[in-house]
Amino acid sequence: MRSLHSRLLLAASLVLAGFLGATGLALDTAFRNSAEAAMQERLQSYIYALLAAADEDSNGHMIPPQALPEPRFSKPDSGLYAVIAEHHGETLWQSESLTGRTIPNAHQQQPGRRQFSELVLDDLQLYRLAFGVAWEDYAGEEALYTFTVAEDRAGFQAEVDSFRSTLWRWLGGMALGLLLAQGAILRWGLRPLRTVTSDLQSIQQGHSNRLDGQYPRELSGLTSSLNTLIDHSKSVQTRYRNSLDDLAHSLKTPLAILQSSESSGGDVQAEQSLIREQVERMDDIISHQLQRAAVSGRATLAKPVAVDKVVNRLLRTLDKVYLEKNITVERNLDPASSFVGDEADLTEILGNLLENAYKYCHGAVRVSVHTLDAGIEILIEDDGPGIAPEQVHAILQRGTRVDESVPGQGIGLSMANEIISVYAGHLEFAASDMGGALLRIHFAN
């Protein structure tokens, strides 16, 4: 049962079978009870007819009926039988239909009381109704009698069997029709899932780039997430390809310089210095391009990263590195703020920016993290010399350094900015009220 269609169809079939089965049993029981009640009323009407046909003698004593109200009482083995018993249980009269048969007398019934029961007589199955009667003579004395009427169950059972057969045929036909309708409805309802599968196969075969079909509202979140994952995968592939292209292009110049130094025949010490310089440059280029290629980028299914934990971990490390500067750090961190992406990318961004703040400050740094309706905002401030507006473009270029007196390679800000851009974020520069630079990072939800 690995098919949704099969599982739903099986579940619906079981529910339908249970419902129709319970309905059939309820209707069958209700019909049988109704038929038995009708049988009791019919037997009671026979007893009233026998009472109406009874006569009395000159003293007012009862004379059993001579003209029977129902012809079957006069026909042997007709299936309808009657017995009148006296108070002591002795049979006073029985119908001619009982010729050659004997019905056991029912228990004496009090006047006006009746008892309905089933009775097996030889090869017959009967319904029997006993009714108590008090007959008063002219002297005012009452004589108690029990009128018993019995009828063969064959007619009753044939009626019940006919109803049952019709009922289950109709219910079976309805069940079959409903199952076919459910199968068609399920197939129609699950068609969008088959469409998504077909569209994904089309993407795998290179015939399409995205899931661009018209899908139901319930699948829009799934298809949107799949499109995001597809775009992210393409972005990663493009970034790796571009980084390799950039790496090859960036290495051309150092390699050309090294090749020219071999054929120049100049000063050996100068050549060694040149080679060492170009090797270090090539190492920086390779490191930079590898870091660019390793940026994960925002993924729809990425686990949120607590920003305050990353900030505190970096601050503890930087406090040890710059222990001699005795830097005071003010922290305004919202513990609810989270970054949707790779924790290594967030660490790379904040590590570069916080290290610059520690590096260029005079003695104070402030870090703030806020949760906004549109995302999160991270502010990094220091009391250093600051960044002039006309310097912003330059310092975002790889290898450019504003202050040559501070050690570094000039790629930290450009690296951080590139990673922020991959996550569709923004990096802004402004002046801090502490006197130095303010770097504002914004990531959308």
The residue ranges in which pLDDT falls below 50 over 5 or more consecutive positions are: none
Tell me the strand order in the biggest sheet: 4-3-7-6-5
Q: For the residues shown, what is the average pLDDT?
A: 83
Helix/strand class = alpha+beta
Rounded to an integer in angstroms, the radius of gyration calculated over CA atoms is 51 Å
Number of strands: 14
**Main β-sheet: number of strands, strand sense, barrel status?**
5 strands, antiparallel
Query: Could you state the order of secondary-structure elements as H and E?
Result: HEEEEEEEHHHHEHEEHEEHHEE
Number of domains: 3
Shape: rod-shaped
Strand content: 15-25%
Our measurement of the CA-to-CA distance between the termini, rounded to an integer number of angstroms, reads 39 Å
Helix content: 40-55%
- Helix count from the secondary structure assignment: 9
Explained architecture:
This protein has about 450 residues and is α+β, with helices and mostly antiparallel strands. It has 3 domains: about 5-160; about 215-295; about 305-445, Histidine kinase-like ATPase, C-terminal domain (Heat Shock Protein 90), CATH 3.30.565. Helix content is about 50%, strand content about 20%. The strands form 4 sheets. It has a 5-stranded antiparallel β-sheet. Strands 9-11-12-14-13 form a 5-stranded mixed β-sheet, with helices on one face. A two-stranded antiparallel ribbon has the order 1-2.
Protein topology:
Layout: H1 4-53, E1 55-56, E2 62-63, E3 80-86, E4 91-94, E5 114-121, E6 124-136, E7 142-152, H2 153-189, H3 191-204, H4 217-264, H5 268-294, E8 304-306, H6 307-321, E9 328-333, E10 338-340, H7 343-360, E11 364-372, E12 375-382, H8 392-395, H9 412-422, E13 426-431, E14 437-444
Helix pairs in contact: 1-2, 4-5, 6-7, 7-9
